[in-house]
Amino acid sequence: MPLAIKILFAFAYDLLLLCAIWVAGALPFVIWQGEDFQRNPYALVGFQAYLIGLTYLYLTYFWTQNGQTPGLRVWRLALVRNDHYLMPRYQANLRFLAGILLFWIGWIGLFTPMKRTLQDHLSGTRILPLSAINPEN
Predict the structure, then answer these.
(1) Contact of 75 with 128, CB cutoff 8 Å
(2) Cβ distance 115 to 121 under 8 Å?
(3) Predicted structure pTM score
(4) CB-CB contact of 114 with 70 (8 Å)
């Protein structure tokens, strides 16, 4: 299977897990704000920032700990620096910020010969099969 397709499937898998996290994470916020919180624009902005924060914690934790979100792990892929080492926190922050700002156009790079998203180019990272990182896998 082509690498770009595996990356997209890994993204879909992680998105499903994130949806579950968002639903579970939304419960305390909705209970705290009450059932009419959607009428308060400040509460809505706060809620969106809260969900982005949950997403940030989920992604950057896995990226910096072992380079694999659950979706990447299922597809035997890893997110690493260009030198094949795990990325530090500042690089994960840069990749997350670039991913948010360039979400719709960032994925176009997957279908180029380099198979790297725009956020990968900007943060100096890449998604590779585990066999390319550790030949014994």
Answers:
(1) no
(2) no
(3) 0.85
(4) no
